[in-house]
Amino acid sequence: MKSENKNFLMNVGYQGLMLAFPLITVPLVSRALGAQNIGIYSYTYSIANMFMLAGMLGVSNYGNRSVARVRDDEAALSREFSSTYALQVAVSLVAVGAYALYLVLFPQQYGRVAWIQLIQVLSVCFDVSWLYFGLEKFFQTIVRNLIVKVLSLLLIAVFVKGPDDLWAYTLIMACSTLMSQLYLFCSVPRYVKPVRPELRGSARRLRDIAVLFLPVAAYSVYRVLDKTMLGSLSTVTELGYFENAEKLINIPIAVITALGTVMLPRMSYVLSKSDADYRSIILSSMRLALTLSCAMAMGLIVIADDICPVFFGPGFEGCAPVIRLLAITVICSAWSSVVRTQFLIPKAKDSVYVGSTVGAAAVNLVLNVILIPSFGSLGACAGTIAAELFIVIFQTIATGSDLDARKYFGILFVHLAKSSVVAVAAFCAASLFDNALVRLVIEIVVYVFLFLVLNWQFVVKDFLGWSK
Description:
Layout: H1 3-56, H2 59-70, H3 74-105, H4 111-116, H5 118-123, H6 129-134, H7 139-159, H8 166-185, H9 202-223, H10 225-233, H11 236-270, H12 278-312, H13 319-344, H14 350-375, H15 377-398, H16 405-430, H17 436-454, H18 456-463
């Protein structure tokens, strides 16, 4: 198996642990807190998360790219890390102060929970995961999450028993984030020797980081601000539906994110060479991303009705149509993630990256204002779908002379057809049973089995690299 594929699988493990934690706790927490309290948590976190994004500025992508470019030079690596992290700390402290000031000047309806979310904002001061990704050190992040998330799961099982325990759930989630960041932060000296940050070039570095922050901020409009607007323009119950549905949607998106996280430093390193053959690498990545995303999106559509009562319990029936609509975004995210992390960011084509994401944010914001008051969570879905489609179309047109979009569309149509056949077969097999849990198991087993049958050669030969 190629090293990139090994790192991809390892990073899928990393993302899987990040998402396995909320998925394991979803049945417990949903039944203990209810849709309204889930909505309150999501609403307060969405606000805190905007300050967290501002605190990180564009450091994650910039640091990942910069570290990958100089990782073979120990002295240059130490200088790059120290200077970039110094900027991160300065901006993060401003974000922490701004969030605290916001809570003081604008007393919150859910003030106790909102103040606990301050710990989440503080955690960005210690987030150095970009260093490990740039060095392609993915195992450390897996260990970090395994330890912290297991401890958090145990604490939730012990202390979250009913609606009055929302504050305890929020505190556990916030502290787990902070401890997770501190774990990696304490290991930094093993890989770099921190030096005094260089003031020379700080303005340029800050400018480059700020440019990469624009798409991050825009992305938050249709991935985070959706929740804030749902809580403000609709009800926290509708937000509770959206929040739980998004937990499921984030599973396939995390798999795609894992691919991008692995390939960004690899492509930054490859594209630093003048004779790099980047088209074949990106084509292989796009084939993998579209194969997986089509399968996972159609799979979510199949299981939507049955997974809601099984995982979320009574009162979450409204999640099913939200899951089906948001499944469309999985395929869009796969396409745009490959283009973004394997070409636009490594090639420093930041204007295309920024333009596509800012434009998508504008589309999303307008549609949210129009649709959320009347359609609630379904209106938020429409805005998110439109935003993701805008990014795909914008980036495809902008990179038309550099990438093989026609080949990508061919791959997409083939795997949509395959996944549709598998979805129909799984749905028909499950329809023979009445119990939701039994149907869910049948749907998953049949779907996975038929997917492997139809894609066996790709999985075994092209991805795993096994041969006779």
